[in-house]
Amino acid sequence: MSGPTDNSPLLTYVLRQGDRSLVLAQRLLENVAHAPELEEDMALGNIALDLIGQARLLYTYAGEIDGEGNDENHYAYWRDDTDFTNPLLVEQPNGDFAHLVTRQFLYDAFAAPFWAALAMSSDESLAAIAAKAVKETAYHLRHSRGWMIRLGDGTDESHQRMQAAVDQLWRFTDELFEQDAVEEGLQAGGVAPDMEALRAQWTATVDAVLAEATLTHPEDSTMRNGGRRGAHDEPFSFLIGEMQVVARAHPGASW
Amino acid sequence: MVTDVDTRAREVVEGVEDPELPYVTIGDLGMVRDVQADGTQITVKLTPTYTGCPATEQIRDDVCVALADAGYDADVSFVLSPPWTTDWITEVGREKLTKAGIAPPHQAGDGHETRLDLPVACPRCGSRHTKRYGDFGSTACKTNFVCESCREPFELFKAL
Q1: What ipTM was estimated for this complex?
Q2: Class of domain B2-78
């Protein structure tokens, strides 16, 4: 069915970005009211709201691209777990607060240069969504970086927990930069940024913050991937199930 | 005169209060991109503010109601490009925010992270001896500060 007007690579690309934001938001929201202090609960809720907002805009745009009359709710609630194409990092189940902060930081350090690059996209809708997201992400990164340094260079206990979190999550970082024919095709038209080019910026941020936080990263992790093909870990199905249960129990319900 | 209808309809739209910050209007916030009149049919284009702002749908509904009350039929849509920035908040809007105890945003510019830590003046006593104690606040657009001179907590409207 592919031809000069085939929009499916763009649709796939837009859904990948939306899925990544939505799934991380859902994980963060699981932790709201469990943060170590009230300000942190507000922070997690606010960051999750920004991420949901990104997902909503991207899913709405996806609906325009695919031309099937789908709205944002279709992509969030009516696709199955294996249809979601988020990288594994953002779906990792919540552990302790060190784990949550480290997952967020490793993502934010990626999101900041990613949205900055996508804001230059030749696709006007993606550029507009990214131009807002890059500014919001600056606040997220300041927040997660602050915790990395405070806890990494904190007490023996906090340092040990942070190091354990970095060691555990490092294996999921490579997938953030994965690209296939979809990305490569869109790069040719200036729609999508080259993910490899973003890796240097991510590495610079992460190395600097880990050093200041007195933390190190594993040198020989076996990197994991598969999320972008829909091959998720088992806890992901429960996450998506909980997110979708009300919408599926009451199809079409509105306030 | 079409122009008169345009002007009046625009006044109605710009006068709609923000549901979460009722001391400013969506005109003050720089959200109104376009108002076109065709008889009594008014087409409104708004720009959403913060990506995660849950008030966006409420604002759309409020604009429709305000125009209906003024005798118009409304068609309200959102446009993403160019993306909204706090630099579009009017001078009047900034004064209203300050009066309500909310420090107005710095110039957002390109949103580079180094701009996030500029000094903030207390909206109550004017002191620049203030301290951020939370990265995020009660709504998506604000962050928490305390004034170390008058000891009052206040919020800063985040530059975006």
Answers
A1: 0.88
A2: alpha beta
